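job 3f2a | input accepted
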Amino acid sequence: MAATSKSLKDYFKPLDLHDPVYMLFSYHGVHSGTQAFITHLDRAPVKEKILTFMFPFALNLSFVLILLWRGFSSTSHFDVWSLWLQDNTPAKTGTRELSLPWYFATLLFDVAIFVSLPYHISNFIKGELWMRIQCGFKPVEIIFRKPTGILRAQIDSLPEEEFQKAWFGCMMQACDADFLRSNVGYNTRFGFWVLDYAASPDAYRLVQDGAVDIERFDIAVWQKTDEQWTSWEISREAEKYSDPDIQRRTTQIVVDRLRAMGKEELLKKWAEMVRNLQTKEEPTSEEKLKQQKAMEKVFADEGVNFVEFWQMAMDEAVTDGK
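job 3f2a | predicted structure (322 res):
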């Protein structure tokens, strides 16, 4: 069997310039300041989606109330602190010397909340709340995620090979079907992949106009490389990997490669973990995800990226089966 040495780029196929999806990602890529998206379809019950939405809604509503409270009670800081501490407060002593520390303490508190909370409130209103106002709650929802934040900045500074491994590993875990089935809404954020709500209304319009099949958005990675948007439609490709014969050949390829690498101990640990999972009648998605992470750690301890290793074996199994 010939070894497979696919790089991350090899999994992506270029999109046609006239593809409506190409225009969708070109527009929102610029406006969101990103060159990559992950999409999937959220098929959770509408009631569950509403309950999940209520948490950030209530949290941001509490932020608004805090700002209003501090804004309207700016002349009664001392009374508020005295009620809370009930001892040696400026309101109780009435001395200016003791009032100054409390004055600056409340001033710092107010500065902190008036600087930080409006940012979070604004993001929620312009993001999820505005999307819900436009689209409501649907039985099948199109979810977009984009890479951003401190974790993304950290891997950007890694050498190319390490960057590819970190990017690929986090991306594949964020695309895990069991993880996505067991989480709803903002709970699907993973690592540096966070939700982006701006593209959803436009995606729904494309689907409603019949320009795009909604299933095309189910577990797919969209990435811009060399001025060209590309796609890796993982969910669609997974269908060809679900064949039991492909699974059997993939397992055999993994076993053969581990033996060729002299990783007999790793092979034994992996086989034991697989047996433990198979002994359970119907493992839950949480159990599968936990086992997946455990496998990744065991392989990582031996210097092997399990996700990439398994994917390459599956590619070879499909190729050999043709």
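job 3f2a | The longest strand covers residues 36-42.
job 3f2a | closed
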